[in-house]
Amino acid sequence: MNAPDEVIHQSTRLRIMSSLSAMPHAEKMEFTQLRALLQATQGNLGAHLATLEEAGYIAIEKDYVGKKPRTRISMTAAGRRAFNAHLGYLREVVHALASPIEGTAMPRNRRR
Amino acid sequence: MKVSRDEAATALDEVDESRRRVGQRLDYRYSARLFFLWGSAWILANILSDIMRERAPLIWDAIVALASCVSIYWAFRRPRFVDAIGEAAGPQRHYGRRYLAAAAIYLGFLAAIVWVTGPFTSRQVTAVAVLAIAQVYLLAGIWSGARYIAPGATLATLALLGYAGAIPGFEHWIGIAGGGLLIVTGLWFRRM
Question: What is the CATH number of domain A6-98?
């Protein structure tokens, strides 16, 4: 079984990585869009992004559009690998413990 | 660190929900340029057919055909949302072909309606065409994202008010108002 990724597993960081993983390849997401999607405060989101950047899972690019500053975020190859591995771990946990031998069913709130 | 089954299931739900939200925003953003295209086409066709009245049907056919080709090209070129392992997600696969098939079915249906129940007056044709466009956006509002309902409902209301004679000069202002509405919707969607 894979091991959980403690950096990614935290709820806000998991949602950040999930959102970035849904972007088409080579597309970056603007900080303001990510903040709106996650309904997070600027400070909170900034702190979690810094943690992910430090782990090498995301790349943060700052530039200007005219005179307006812009921050764009993308998932790195290492980030995608780590995210996929973490997803694999979560699925294994759900499926391993939902085996018929133990007589347990999938949790009610699971859609898949 | 140990993760329980419930925690893992909740985390997977969060992943799904986050990805769904991003998918919807991307859908709005990609639709924005379609709104610009069709809004501009609508206004242009109205202006040109007013200037060259005898060639109005040809102008409309040419502009609609051109805008349709561009839309289909964009649909085929549209980036696919990718799933967690980097593959195109099921419902978004073959998007271009689906778009083409849906457009063909819809246009075929409209042509059949005109053939069976026509001939229409120019006022009726205008109202039916605008209502048909409004219907597409209303259906998209139900299936793809609630924000499509705003342009659909506004267009339908304008078409019905105009046809009923509540606002005079229906056939003239609806082209500019409808086209303008689509362009404004494009601006709104682009901010997603």
Answer: 1.10.10.10
